[in-house]
Amino acid sequence: MAQVNIRIEDDLKEQAEAIFNELGMNMTTAFNIFVRQTVREGGIPFAVTTKPDPFYNAANMEILRQSIKEANEGKLAVHELIED
Question: For the chain, what are the domain ranges?
Answer without folding.
Answer: 10-72
